[in-house]
UniProtKB/TrEMBL annotation:
Listed PROSITE patterns: CBS
NAD recorded as keyword: no
UniProt-recorded name of the protein: CBS domain-containing protein
Chain ranges of the CBS domain: 9-65, 83-138
Keyword annotations of the record: CBS domain
CDD domains: CBS_pair_AcuB_like
Pfam families registered for this protein in UniProt: CBS
SUPFAM superfamilies xrefs: CBS-domain pair
SMART domains: CBS
Length: 143
């Protein structure tokens, strides 16, 4: 029996709206232990915003002694201005090899999981690596 995305995906997903400001996104990333937010519009997946996307979009001087009003203004940008659009997605029944190839081939850090167009989870490269590591550990213990 092969392992599929549904076996390892996180169903604890956090969504943001396209018109949310980056200061909201920054607060979410600072309080949570994950690195990708799914962007929705009318409950339809429109994009992904990673912590890396956020850091590229805001001033590096925010929170420093050299912070200026202009630096703080970067936090007023909207999510739709910096998000990755048309995300690569997978279904829950996709095997891990396919998901891993999608992440590698498209240079993304996560894959939103859609079941008949409904957002049901997210799988990240860390989830895949953890699953492979656990699978290898099990295989070695059988030797």
């Amino acid at each position: 029996m092969s392992i599929v995305v549904a076996d390892i995906m996180s169903t604890r997903i956090v969504t943001i709206e396209m018109d949310d400001r980056l200061n909201v996104v920054k607060d979410i990333f600072e309080q949570a232990n994950f690195h990708h937010l799914l962007v929705v519009d009318n409950n339809k997946l429109e994009g992904v915003l990673s912590e890396r996307d956020l850091l590229r979009a805001i001033s590096p001087h925010i929170g420093s002694i050299g912070e200026t009003v202009k630096d703080l203004e970067t936090l007023q940008k909207r999510v739709h201005q910096v998000m990755a659009r048309n995300p690569i997605t997978v279904a829950p029944n996709v095997c891990l090899d396919t998901a891993a190839h999608l992440i590698l081939d498209h240079h993304v850090g996560c894959l939103p999981v859609l079941d008949n167009g409904r957002l049901v989870g997210i799988v990240t490269w860390k989830d895949l690596l953890r699953a492979y590591s656990e699978h290898l550990s099990l295989a070695e213990s059988e030797c």
